[in-house]
Design goal:
Blueprint lengths: L2 H20 L7 H23 L29 H12 L2 E6 L2 E6 L2 H10 L11 H7 L12 H14 L1 H6 L1 H18 L10 H17 L9 H16 L6 H4 L9 H29 L8 H7 L1 H4 L3 H14 L2 H13 L4 H14 L15 H13 L9 E2 L4 E3 L2 E3 L4 E4 L1 H5 L23 H4 L23 H18 E5 L23 E5 L3 H5 L8
Parallel strand pairs: 2-6
Antiparallel strand pairs: 1-2, 3-6, 4-5, 7-8
Helix pairs in contact: 1-3, 5-12, 8-9, 8-21, 9-16, 10-12, 12-15, 16-21
Bound molecules: protoporphyrin IX containing FE (HEM).
Pfam families: p450
Organism: Lentinula edodes
Cofactor: heme
Amino acid sequence: MDSSTNTTIQQAAVFNLVVVEDFVFQSKSTSLVIATAAIATAVYYLFSFFESSLRDKNGNGIPAGPRGLPLLGSFPFLTQYPELTLDYWAKKFGDMYSIWLGNQLFVIISSPAIVKDLIVTNGAVFSSRKEMFIKSQTVFAGRGITATPYNDRWRKHRRIATGWLNQRAVDSYTPILDREATVLVKAMYQESKAGQVPINPQPHAGRASLNNMLSIVFGFRTDSIYHPLVGRALKLSREFMNSTGPMSNLVDFIPFLQNFRTPMRVRGEKLHQGLVETYGGFIKDIEHKMQMGVNVPDCLAKTMIDTKEEEQMGHLDMAILASAFMIGGVETTAAIMQWFSALIPAYPEIQRKAHEELDKVVGRDRLPTVEDEKNLPYCHAIIKEVERCHNPFWLGTPHVANEDFTYRGQFIPKDTVVVLNTWTMHHDPSRHSEPERFNPERYLDDSLTSADSANLTDPYQRDHWMFGAGRRICPGMIVAEREIWLTISRMLWAFTMESLPDEPIDLKEYDGLSGRSPVPFRINLIPRHDKVAQVLGMEEAPA
Ligand code: HEM
């Protein structure tokens, strides 16, 4: 990551903040200004009174934080690069501070010790989710493992999901992940005409992740980035990422607005319909085939259909659980492959070291495999460093306190939304020296998988916080890491990745509010040696 770029974003965010914090009304009508100011002041004092009255029985108040604006709270400061604003406040208010968005109290935690104390050790209190109006109520219709409160429905969905995402399950379908990683490299080789023309690697990464999830959830795959389902599915995931950021919808925090068919609500309803039609449609097809006695490959949908009576899962439950997989498992892993492809061209020396390691350990006659990972510490470290620098979810998926809790003399009332401020934790100079620098060496001695790293007793030793924490930690970690390993190690094995002199890659901008991926870019993928075509099964360079 380029440090000057980051400084610029930081300055922009802080400038934004200061301008909005000043909140200067410019109006031609003096009386309107006075009336507005009077109402705002009244609301402001009412709000301040409410805020200061939030104390536990011992008089402990809620953590300090920015005051925000009347009615809106801190919402206007978080519409762009919210992670940078949260970081700015962490420096001002400390590792645990509160903000208001409309009527909702948020507590932002920015230290591994506090994450462990609250989210892990007190997981019985901090494992719920807020039923946000757009994401939970409208898009997921009160279902979907990701958004469900900490209750029996969540336990059931988590158990079913884990059955398809645990180590044994992932080992059983690793051949699928393996095949998709090879297909990805092959498709890149072909589209780039063996390195003669630049390409945008993003759709290829999207299709690889999509195919993995389609195989796990529905037992089929697509064969080209031009398959209509690729566009439709990626559009649904992107729309989800663009419309359900944890802090991005005002209608979530101003309940009065929920009575109207606002554009945001209409958008949420359309997305719900799209998910149910697409993924619910596949479930219906599979169910129909099963009724007709047609052999259906093992997959999550088949498991759900087989056990729907005993699990009491209706069609909507199944459609939304499948959608949660298709959303949670596609844009996320694809985003890591995309951030890797966007940033690695700027680091020829890092590529050279990775190539040297690959040549030594794997050689040039075959692709790297899952078994090679433990012997390729430098390539492994590159991936962890991409994940530290480009976590697709800087704000994670927030947790909610399901009862009042007092921590270090600070009161966290029931229903407070708790956010892991991963940007600040990933850029803490006491943990990661020169945090703005992309430097895989910092992970060279860390041979643990992220799934194992999350279980370390000392939270300061954990690699990164990309997968969240506690009882709601991402259950897809094992499959995600395996997919990412196979795709990135094979891209490194096959290509030298170069940027184009006239097309600088923008690493500061990103698409998405809840999950972020790079804005479109093109790079050159130059086959590294003569064996690439042969190992990929393409004797001739494509015309
Ligand atoms: C790079 C890839 C991925 C990242 C960064 C990621 C990140 C996350 C995060 C931050 C959470 C919330 C954790 C918390 O509440 O503390 C989560 C939850 C979840 N993820 Fe992932 N994820 C990834 C891949 C996957 C994959 C491949 C799947 C497979 C289906 C998946 C399925 C889920 C599900 C179902 C949940 C909801 C868990 C719950 O609320 O109990 N994720 N993920």
